[in-house]
Design goal:
Helix content is about 40%, strand content about 5%. It is mainly alpha-helical. A two-stranded antiparallel sheet has the order 1-2. Strands 3-4 form a two-stranded antiparallel ribbon. Helix 2 packs across helix 6, helix 4 crosses helix 6 and helix 8 packs across helix 13. The two termini are about 30 Å apart. Bound molecules: heme C (3 copies). The site of one heme C has 24 residues, from helix 3 and helix 4.
Length: about 425
C-alpha cells in the first residue's frame, strides 16, 4: 500500500477508535472490578509453594523479555519496545511502593492481565494482555505473589515516546472494546488434555500469537490468520500453523528439541525467538514442552513434507560459486553444517521458508553469537552486506532455495535491495 493511502486509512480507523473510546469512557463499560482474593487459599499450599509456582508461570509467560533491561535488575523495567506508533517502555514491576507495584492488590494486578487497565490508566497493547487475558485468576495470583517476593528496586518508569494523537491513553479503551477478544482462536485441532494444556501455554502464557500473527493498521492481531506469520522486528516470525510447520519439515520431536535446546539438526533459534527460547521455553517442564508441541501440531500431526532431491546439475551456477567462496568454510560444501560449530543449511527451516525475508536478512546482516544449553556456543556469523552485490545475494539465495530448500529460485535483486535497507545492524 502506498504510504499516503496507508496514512489516510490509519486516520479513519483512528477516528473510529476515538469515537468508541469516548463512548466507553462515558458509559463506564470495560471498567470491571475484581475481588482482592487472598492469594491461593488452597489447603496445605504454603506461600513458598505459591511463589515457586508463580516464578515458573512468569518464566513461561516471559515477563522478563519486556520488564528486565539488559544489565538491569530483574523486573525493574526500562526495556524499549519499538512500535509503529513510537517507543514504549516496559515498566518497573518490582514491589517498590513508589515506582513499582508494591501498593497493588492481586485484583489490580489481575485487571492488568485480563483487561490491560492499571489503577491509574489503561495500558498500550504493547503489554500483551490480549494473550494474558486467557490466564486463570489462580495463575495471575501466583505470579503476583512471586513478583511481590522479588527485590524492590526504586527506579522510575521511562515515559513512552508516543506522539499525539496516539498518546491519548483513553483511546485504548476503544481499542480494547474493538479488538480485545478471549479466547483466542485455536491454531490446530485437538481436545486431548495435553492439547488443552498446550493451548493455554501457547495462547495465554507464551503469547506466541503476539509475534507469529500478522497485525492490522492499528496494531490489532488479525485473528483470522492466527499464527500464520508476523513481522514485528527485523526478523519475521514464520508461519507456525500445523500446515506451515509441516511444509518446512518440522516433526514433533524436532519442535520439542527446538523449545528445550534452541538447536535442532535443521535450525537454531535466533532474533527474538532466541530470547523467547532463552528466557522462557527452555525452562518448560518436559510435560509442558510436550503439551506446547501437541498444540502446535494438533492431536493428529501432519507428516512433515520431505525435501525433494535435487539433480547434481542444478548444483552449479553463479549462486553455487558464491556459496563455495563465502559460506562453505563454515556450513560445509554440501550444506551439511559442522557439529558444535554451525547449523546445516541443507534442509534448514529458514532456507525452506517460502518467504525469503529471513534468509536475506541473515546473509546481509549476519547473526550475533549465542550460547545454548549443554555448552553449545555458536560464534557470530559475519554479515555479507559489504562483500556481495544485490545480484550475488539473489543468486546465492536462489541456489540455497532450489538446492536445499525445495523452494522456487524466484528472489530478485530488487528484493535484496529492500532487505539491505533494513539490515544495517547485526541481528541479535
Ligand atoms: C511484549 C512485552 C511485554 C511482556 C512480555 C510483558 N509486558 Fe508487562 N508491560 C509491557 C509494557 C510495554 C508495559 C507498559 C505499557 C504502557 O505504558 O501502557 C507493561 C506494563 C505492565 C504492568 C503495568 C505496570 C504499571 O505500572 O502500570 C504490569 C503490572 C505488567 N506489565 C506485568 C507484566 C507481567 C506480570 C508479565 C508476564 C506475565 C508481563 N508484564 C509481560 C510489556 C510487556
Ligand atoms: C564464520 C562462519 C560462518 C560463515 C562464513 C557463514 N555462516 Fe551462516 N551461520 C554461522 C553460525 C555460527 C550460525 C548459527 C548462529 C546462531 O544461531 O547463533 C549461522 C546461521 C546461518 C543461518 C540461519 C539458520 C539457522 O537456523 O540458524 C543462515 C540462513 C546462514 N547461516 C546462511 C549463511 C550463508 C548463506 C553464508 C554465506 C554467505 C553463511 N551463512 C556464512 C556461521 C557462519
Ligand atoms: C518476541 C517475538 C516472538 C515470540 C513471543 C515467539 N516467537 Fe517464535 N519466532 C520469532 C521469530 C522472529 C522467529 C524467527 C527466527 C528463528 O527461526 O529462530 C521465530 C521462530 C519460531 C520457530 C521456528 C520456525 C522455523 O521454521 O525456523 C518456532 C517453532 C516458533 N518460533 C515457535 C514459537 C512458539 C511456540 C512461541 C510461543 C511459546 C513463540 N514462537 C513465541 C518470534 C517470536
Amino acid at each position: 500500500m502506498r504510504a499516503r493511502a496507508r496514512n489516510w486509512m490509519i486516520f479513519w480507523v483512528f477516528v473510529v477508535v476515538v469515537a468508541v473510546g469516548a463512548l466507553t469512557v462515558l458509559s463506564g463499560v470495560l471498567d470491571p472490578e475484581y475481588d482482592s482474593a487472598a492469594v491461593d487459599t488452597a489447603q496445605g499450599v504454603t506461600d513458598q509453594q505459591v511463589i515457586a509456582r508463580g516464578k515458573y508461570l512468569a518464566t513461561a509467560a516471559d515477563c522478563t523479555a519486556c520488564h528486565t533491561s539488559k544489565d538491569g535488575a530483574p523486573f525493574a523495567g526500562g526495556v524499549p519496545l519499538a512500535t509503529p506508533f513510537g517507543t514504549i517502555y516496559g515498566t518497573n514491576i518490582t514491589p517498590d511502593k513508589e515506582y513499582g507495584i508494591g501498593d497493588w492488590s492481586s485484583a489490580d494486578f489481575y485487571r492488568v492481565m485480563h483487561d490491560g487497565i492499571a489503577p491509574d490508566h489503561p495500558l498500550y497493547p504493547a503489554m500483551p494482555y490480549t494473550s494474558y487475558r486467557g490466564m486463570t485468576r489462580e495463575d495471575s495470583d501466583a505470579i503476583y505473589a512471586y513478583l511481590q517476593s522479588v527485590r524492590p528496586v526504586a527506579l522510575a518508569n521511562q515515559k513512552s515516546e508516543i506522539p499525539f494523537p496516539f498518546n491519548m491513553r483513553f483511546l485504548m479503551r476503544g481499542w480494547n472494546l474493538l479488538f480485545l477478544r478471549a479466547p483466542l482462536p485455536d491454531a490446530s485441532e485437538g481436545d486431548s488434555d495435553v492439547w488443552v494444556r498446550g493451548r493455554y501455554l501457547a495462547n495465554s502464557l507464551g503469547h506466541c500469537t503476539e509475534c507469529h500473527t500478522p497485525r492490522g493498521l492499528v496494531g490489532q492481531l488479525v485473528l483470522s490468520e492466527t499464527l500464520e506469520g508476523g513481522s514485528l522486528g527485523a526478523i519475521n516470525a514464520p508461519d507456525i500453523t500445523p500446515e506451515g510447520l509441516a511444509a518446512r519439515g518440522w516433526a514433533p520431536h524436532n519442535l520439542r528439541q527446538f523449545f528445550a535446546l534452541g538447536i535442532t539438526p535443521h535450525s537454531t533459534a535466533y532474533g527474538e525467538m532466541f530470547d523467547a527460547f532463552h528466557n522462557s521455553t527452555q525452562y518448560l517442564t518436559e510435560s509442558d514442552n510436550e503439551a506446547l508441541v501437541a498444540y502446535l501440531t494438533g492431536d493428529a500431526p501432519l507428516t512433515p513434507t520431505a525435501l525433494p532431491t535435487v539433480e547434481a546439475a542444478s548444483m552449479t551456477g553463479p549462486g553455487r560459486s558464491v556459496y563455495v567462496a563465502m559460506c562453505s568454510g563454515c556450513h560445509g560444501a554440501q550444506g551439511q553444517g559442522k557439529p558444535n560449530v554451525t547449523v546445516a543449511l541443507n534442509g534448514n527451516t529458514t532456507v525452506r521458508n517460502a518467504d525469503p525475508h529471513n534468509l536475506l536478512h541473515v546473509i546481509l546482516a549476519g547473526l550475533e553469537a549465542h550460547s545454548f544449553p549443554n555448552g553449545q556456543g555458536r560464534q557470530e556469523m559475519p554479515g555479507f552486506a559489504n562483500e556481495l552485490s544485490n545480484q550475488q545475494v539473489a543468486d546465492l539465495a536462489n541456489y540455497l532455495r532450489s538446492a536445499w530448500g525445495g523452494q522456487k529460485p524466484d528472489v530478485q535483486a530488487a528484493a535484496v535491495a529492500t532487505s539491505r535497507g533494513q539490515a544495517s545492524a547485526p541481528t541479535d
